[in-house]
Design goal:
By secondary structure, the protein is α+β, with helices and mostly antiparallel strands. It is about 35% helix and about 25% strand.
Length: about 300
Amino acid sequence: MRAPAKINLHLGVGAPREDGFHSLVTVYQAVGLYDDVTARMAPDWSLGVSLPDWMDDDAVPLAGDNIVDRAADLLAAHHGVERLGEVHIAKAIPVAGGMAGGSADGAAALVALDRLWGLNTTDEDLLALAAQLGSDVPFALLGGTALGTGRGELVTPVHDRGTWWWVVVPSDVGLPTPEVYRHFDKMFPDAPTEPVPADALLGAIASGDTWALADALHNDLEAAAIDLRPELGRLIEQGEQAGALRGLVSGSGPTCVFLCGSADHARSLAADLSGAGHPVVLAANGPVSGAHLVSYA
Ligand code: C5P
């Protein structure tokens, strides 16, 4: 299974709810950076992870604590079957980066194990299990461009005929999502119950115009992420000075993304930022498919 990273094109955050989660109005876009999850039959349960050179070895939680373990437990319990299999995650999505890499692995594992165990879980049940795993796991199943409400888990596809180009700059140290939300609460104790609506962003997507999209990008968590990591503000400025149509923090950060006008523009901006001393700079386009099967044997 292959599962994509996401960017939040719009992230409107409301005051915390009674359950501690924040109500969101968000527009997700799946972009072409992928984790691959492989599942094989085995007499017991095991999980392995491989990372690209540029990723920190300690970054991914193992030892029973990975979202893939939890996905397997949920699916097995739902059907009353035993959790058996040998699962491997090949990571490429930045860890703790605001791009839902863990959620991608969780979504891919649900679908992979459903196949492996021959369960034929309905899409509706898979989405419900995904929502139990995390707020943006249902989107990782759906992919494309989608509106997210509730705590982000209620997803509706958005018609998007564009191909949008992004330069992605991960940070070498991750930022835990709960910490960014806590900082948001401290900075904005009077946040409105209802999050900022996504109308402007949806209008820009419908127009197909890259400059309109650049103007409409919105992230309520950006100020909190930049307050925790002031270098992110400097990175965004640097990317915009180097010609990005717009730079912004991806989700809760610290990955920053830069909108470009074309594939060539993205490649040239990536080369500039890389030359300016950022060790890892990636280019990706969206929207792309959600978690999907790439080979079956
Ligand atoms: O749902 P998920 O496990 O991805 O959420 C991780 C953490 O992010 C939550 O424990 C919570 O601190 C924060 N969060 C939030 N409101 C949301 C989504 C996430 O406060 N809508």
